[in-house]
Amino acid sequence: MGKFKRLLSLTLVCAISVFVTGCQKNVDQAVNSEYKYGKLKIQALSGAVCGAPAYVAYEKGFFKEEGLDVELVSGTLDENKTGLATGEFVVTNGDFQWFPSIQQGMNLKVIGGLHKGCIKIVLPPNSPIKTAADLKGKNIGVDEIGGTPMSVATIVLANAGINPQTEVTWKPYPLDQLNEAVSKGEVDAFAAWDPFGTLAVENNGYTVLTDISTDPLFKGKSCCFLYASESQIKENPDKVKAIARAYQKADAWIKEHPEETAQLEIDKKYIASDDIKLVTQLIKSYDFEYTTDTAKDDISYFVKKLDKTGFLKDNTDPDQFANDTYYDILKS
Q1: Which of 5, 47, 122, 199 is 20 to 30 Å from 207 at the Cα level?
Q2: Measured between alpha carbons, how far is 251 from 287 in angstroms, rounded to an integer?
Q3: In the chain, what are the domains?
C-alpha cells in the first residue's frame, strides 16, 4: 500500500508538472504571438519633455501595435553607446551629438527626425552675461559631457567666435542640480533640456540666452533624430521599421493631442513638473512630426554648423555625410 501511495504521488507530481509546463508554454506562445519582435529596451527616461514620442508610443500602445514589447530605461550617454554597440539597444533618440561618434566608426544611421527645439541656455538673475560672446572664459553647466545640450551650446559658442573646446569650461551635473550649481557660483550659465531651463526662468528669475525653438541658428530644424544601429538595420530591417512606425504614430498623436500628452507626462512622472499649462505650451512649440527627407537636409545643415566647433573632422562634406548617415527605413 505504501508503494502504491508513493507511485500515485509521483504520478500526480508528473501530471501537474506536465500541466504547468504546458500552460507556461501556451502563455509564452501567446506572448510571442502578441509581440512579433519580442522584448526591446530603449534608453528614453531622460526627464525631458521632448522625450514624448517614446513615452506616448509606450503608454498609448503604439509599440505594442507594432509587435514590440518595449521597456523604457534610463542611463548615461556612455551606457547608450555601449548598448547600441553590443545590440542591447536598437534605436536611440538624440541630436547631432552622435555625428562625431559616427565619424569615429560608430555604426549608426539617422532614420527620421522627431521634433524641433527643446533646449535652452539660461542665465541667472543679474548675470553680467548678455550675449553668447560673453561666455568666453566662463563655466557652463550641462547634464553630461558630449550630451545634446552641450552639443547645442557648442554651436552657439562657435557662431559667436568662441572655441568650445578651449575657451570655456564644461561642468556636468544632474539636471536637477544645475540651479544649485549656479547658486554656489560653480557655473555661470547652463544648457539643458526642457523643462529644466524653462522652470529656471519661470521659478527662479533666469533669462534665456538661447532658445533653439526660436534662435535663427536652429529654428525650423530637427533638434532630435531617431537613430538606429546599422547592424540591426541589416539583420532585422522589419523590426527597425516597426520601431520607426511606432515613433511616427506617436509624433502624429502628440501633434493632435498636446495637452493630453502633457498630462500623460505629468501623471506618469516622466518629467519633473506638474504645470500642465507650461508643459502643453512647450510641447506645442516643438512641432512634433516624423520627418524623412527633411531630416536628411537637417543633417547636412548641422554638419555645416558643427564644422566651426572642431568636433568633426576638418573639411567634412555636409552633403556626403548626410548621404552616408541617413537611411529611410520606411521606404526600404
Answers
A1: 47
A2: 9
A3: 39-116+221-331 (3.40.190.10), 119-211 (3.40.190.10)
Spell out the per-residue pLDDT of the chain, length 332, in tens. 455 455 445 444 444 454 445 544 444 444 457 899 999 999 999 999 999 999 999 999 999 999 999 999 999 888 999 999 899 999 999 888 899 999 999 999 999 999 998 999 999 999 999 999 999 999 999 999 988 899 999 999 999 999 999 999 999 999 999 999 999 999 999 999 899 999 999 999 999 999 999 999 999 999 899 999 999 999 999 999 999 999 999 999 999 999 999 999 999 999 999 999 999 999 999 999 999 999 999 999 999 998 889 889 988 999 999 999 999 999 98
Main-chain phi, psi angles of 93, to 5 degrees: -110, 130
Whose cell is 544632474? That residue is 174
